[in-house]
Amino acid sequence: MKWVVISTVGKNPGDEFIRVGIGHAIKAVDSKATGSIIDKESNSIFRPEPFDRCILAGMPVFWSLDGNNCWTGVKWWKVLADGWVSNDKRKFAIIGAGSFQDQTNIFRGVNKERLHKEASNLNDRSHTIIVRDDIVNKTTGMNFDVKVCPAILATYDLLKTGSINGCNMMPEGAHYGVFSPTEAGIWQSKAQSIAKELLRNDFKFFSHNDNERLFAKHLGWVDKNIIHYTGDTKAFLQHYKNVDKFFGNRVHGCIVSRANNADVISCGYDSRQEAVRLSGSKILLPSELDINKFSRWVENSDGGKPIDVDNIFDYYKDVLSEFKGE
User: Fold this and answer.
1) Which helix H or strand E contains 248, and what residues bound it?
2) Distance CA 202, CA 243 (A)
3) DSSP secondary structure letter of residue 37
4) DSSP per residue over 260-326, as a string?
5) Where are the domains of the chain?
6) pLDDT on residue 67
7) How far apart are the C-alpha atoms of 47 and 33, rounded to whole Å?
8) pLDDT at 226
9) pLDDT of 186-221, one tens digit each?
């Protein structure tokens, strides 16, 4: 059976962690699977190709803060909502999609009637929609199944080869300061103090793009202690497999670290934090982060909450087995 997965290629580690996790589940239910990856950020998304099953791997679709890049700068979701990939609903599924709202006020800027209409239309054109946080249902008025993001399966085939503490820090504390300018400002006022504690305890910095690498250097990290994504997703995942403790803004860095039962604190202010909470991580707004308590956590913690990754894997195998059908 030919499977087409819509994601990114060598660009966005978070998207690719979801794709890799789903890929493991596909192989488990279809040992002879063939297929391809369509980069949602390239023009190939508009060129139809034959497939037996197609999956949109993660990403917010349109249930996002109205007016941000997911609405105004991206046209790929229109292909999903009214295009060639979803012309036959039996062949199309969305797995691991999440919300993208202001964490402090999830209904800010939300046109509930519009979102419900769009979500209902997409649901009518999809065999299955699995979301990674319940904010999607709250803002769209839908009742999609909610499950831990499939990114947690991305390291399922890897063995732990070391032991490190890791972190990720973004200049604005999340993708876009517009989601909460107040929290973005608080993050920026605390970032140097946070970095000081992490550096003092030898946390490696996971940079998902060049801007984060520059930010790491600005905060005091040197190259040898920066694990930088170069497009080799498997190599990057191997580093994450070795994480015992993680602090970060990047939600998918936090989620894949939780697969190791790592002790994780996710700090941010958009609603994708709820996906991290579902993986068993602690989540904090920047305004909730107390530097003294944080320092104690950095130096000593009780370890992460156990998570049954095998159970999650079985869930996604069941979903894909039913989707595959005969």
Assistant:
1) strand 243-248
2) 13
3) E
4) TT-EEEEE-SBTTHHHHHHTT-EEE-GGG--HHHHHHHHH----PPP--HHHHHHHHHHHHHHHH--
5) 2-154+310-324, 164-299
6) 54
7) 22
8) 98
9) 999 999 999 999 999 999 999 999 999 999 999 999
Rounded to an integer, what distance in angstroms lies between the CA atom of residue 97 and that of residue 58?
4
For the entire predicted model, the pTM comes to 0.94
Tally the C-alpha atoms within 13 A of residue 21's C-alpha that lie toward its C-beta. 31
The pLDDT value recorded for residue 151 is 97
Q: Which residues of the chain have pLDDT under 70?
A: 60-77, 326
Q: What separation in angstroms does the CA of 312 have from each of 153, 237, 316, 318?
A: 8, 18, 6, 10
CB within 8 Å of 62: residues ≥ 6 apart: 70, 71, 77, 81, 115, 118, 119
Q: What are the Cα distances from residue 24, in Å, to 146, 269, 275, 309, 323? A: 20, 31, 20, 13, 15
Packed helices 13-29 and 233-241: angle between N→C axes, nearest 10 degrees: 90
Phi, then psi, of 143 in degrees rounded to 5: -135, 55
CATH architecture of structural domain 2-154+310-324? 3-Layer(aba) Sandwich (3.40)
What is the rounded distance in angstroms from the CA atom of residue 120 to the CA atom of residue 37? 26
List, in sequence order, the alpha helices (H) in the chain. Answer: 13-29, 69-72, 76-82, 112-124, 135-140, 181-200, 210-219, 233-241, 251-258, 273-278, 291-299, 309-324
Residue 50: both structure tokens together: 């034959």
Q: Distance between CA 60 and CA 249 in Å, rounded?
A: 17
Give residue 97's identity as a one-letter amino acid code.
A
Return the pLDDT at 324: 97
- Architecture of the domain made up of 164-299: 3-Layer(aba) Sandwich (3.40)
Q: 109-166: per-residue pLDDT in tens?
A: 888 888 898 889 889 999 999 999 999 999 999 999 999 999 999 999 999 999 999 9
User: Which helix (DSSP H) or strand (DSSP E) does residue 85 occupy?
Assistant: none
Q: What pLDDT is stored for residue 234 in this prediction?
A: 95
Q: Which of 55, 46, 158, 37 is nearest to 97 (CA)?
A: 55
